[in-house]
């Protein structure tokens, strides 16, 4: 494997790692992992905030940008390299961000703005 390809893999992997806080926080809350859930409950602003998932979702575009860094040209006239792995990771992170933000945003709109009864 070429040296630049190894660096591109590291960029892709670090881009994926930026999405992990969202999934870890959801797993803690969903599975009610006792130790971490009790630590999370000590902060009432974090526990009761409906915007915490949306804030954690902001890491997705940051990870997509980091994964796309090897795809960008280094100098103004230079050609950019097409690295398939980095392109796929960037696309998946941006697609997941778009889908999750629209779903969570719609849910927050229904519950907090429209005040629909029996909204979870």
Could you list some keywords that capture this structure?
single chain, 120 residues
Sum this structure up briefly.
With 120 residues, this protein is mainly alpha-helical. Helix content is 71%, strand content 0%.
Report on the architecture of this protein:
With 120 residues, the chain is mainly alpha-helical. The protein has one domain. Helices cover 71% and strands 0% of the residues. The protein has helices spanning 3-17, 20-31, 34-41, 44-47, 52-57, 59-68, 84-113. Helix 1 runs parallel beside helix 7 (84-113). The chain is elongated, with a radius of gyration of 18 Å.
Report the uncertain regions. none
Number of helices: 7
Average pLDDT over all residues: 80
Question: What's the assembly state of these chains?
Answer: single chain
What is the C-alpha radius of gyration, as a whole number of Å?
Answer: 18 Å
Largest sheet: none
**Total beta strand runs:** 0
Which range best describes the helical content: under 10%, 10-25%, 25-40%, 40-55%, 55-70% or over 70%? over 70%
Tell me the β content: under 5%
For the record, give the distance between the C-alpha atoms at the N and C termini, rounded to a whole number: 50 Å
Order of helices and strands: HHHHHHH
């Amino acid at each position: 494997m070429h040296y630049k390809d190894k660096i591109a893999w590291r960029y892709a992997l670090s881009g994926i790692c930026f999405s992990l806080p969202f999934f870890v926080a959801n797993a803690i809350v969903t599975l009610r992992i006792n130790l971490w859930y009790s630590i999370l409950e000590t902060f009432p602003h974090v526990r009761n905030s409906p915007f915490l998932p949306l804030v954690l979702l902001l890491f997705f575009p940051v990870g997509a940008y980091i994964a796309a860094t090897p795809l960008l040209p280094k100098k103004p006239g230079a050609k950019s390299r097409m690295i398939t792995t980095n392109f796929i990771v960037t696309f998946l992170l941006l697609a997941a961000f778009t889908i999750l933000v629209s779903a969570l945003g719609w849910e927050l709109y229904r519950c907090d703005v429209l005040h629909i009864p029996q909204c979870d």
